[in-house]
Design a protein that fits this description.
The structure is a single chain. This protein is an alpha/beta fold. It has eight helices and twelve strands. The protein has a five-stranded parallel sheet, with helices on both faces. The protein has a four-stranded antiparallel sheet with strand order 6-7-8-9, with no helix packed on it. A hairpin with a 2-residue loop joins β8 and β9 (155-157). α2 (39-49) packs parallel to α3 and α6 (161-172) packs across α8 (196-210). It starts with 7 loop residues before the first strand and ends with a strand. The model has no long low-confidence stretch (mean pLDDT 89).
């Protein structure tokens, strides 16, 4: 379970009552709280305070959450949870594509808020166990889990932490089907067993980075209605 005590959370929302609600619940868990009322303030506070996690509202004046997220990702990989009243898939996907780590739909309970923060901190700061060997998939693709390096045709490919964790679990089970639920539980956590859109999106990201033709993948294969399987290269 991710340790929350003394973690600094930057809460970004233009509604004072919402900020007070989150501050109260976060401080009850021993977390420290900084606040901002719009995206522009959030960027300044993130640079100055270096928070451990950011809770970022979508609908705000001056600069909305999506634009703030885009700018934050230009200089920081801090875990970011988007807060949205709409809770629509289009908004969720847009946030994830821009680099958000998770989302939470308003209204939400104390339990859900804390659970999501624990999960995103666990994913971000806990690396999976790694073998100390180089995995040579074929002449084109190699993965050095010890160094956290993926090489495609000799060129290093930059992966987000979640992309790396997903690739790790696929490769370590090469030749075997990993169900949607198994991958969601291993990579995101047991709270995410039903969140299949996360998996679809990140499989797409990985294919775009390692496949020669993402529309006709040779490494990450789809087992329709079941899950995914990494090609058996051993």
């Amino acid at each position: 379970m991710a340790e929350l005590k003394d973690k600094l959370v930057l809460v970004v929302d233009d509604e004072p009552r919402m900020i007070n609600f989150m501050r109260l619940n976060l401080e009850l868990e021993g977390m420290r709280v900084a606040t901002a009322a719009n995206g522009r303030e959030a960027i300044d506070r993130a640079r100055d305070d270096m928070p451990d996690v950011i809770l970022l509202d979508v609908m705000m004046p001056v600069m909305d959450g999506f634009e703030a997220l885009r700018r934050l990702r230009q200089f920081s990989q801090v875990p970011i949870l988007m807060l949205t009243a709409k809770d629509e898939e289009e908004d969720r996907v847009r946030g994830l594509e821009l680099g958000a780590d998770d989302y939470i739909g308003k209204p939400f309970s104390h339990r859900e808020l804390i659970s999501r923060i624990r999960a995103v901190l666990r994913r971000h700061y806990t690396a999976p166990p790694v073998p100390q060997t180089l995995v040579q998939v074929d002449e084109r693709l190699s993965i050095d889990f010890a160094r956290r390096e993926v090489l495609v045709s000799g060129e290093r490919v930059n992966l987000r932490p979640t992309e790396y964790r997903l690739l790790y679990h696929l490769v370590q089970n090469a030749g075997y089907v990993q169900t949607h639920e198994m991958l969601l539980t291993k990579v995101w956590g047991p709270e995410y067993r039903e969140e299949s859109h996360y998996l679809r999106l990140y499989i797409t990201y990985l294919r775009q980075k390692i496949e020669l033709d993402p529309s006709s993948p040779k490494y990450i294969l789809t087992e329709r209605g079941v899950g995914y399987r990494f090609v058996d290269f051993k």
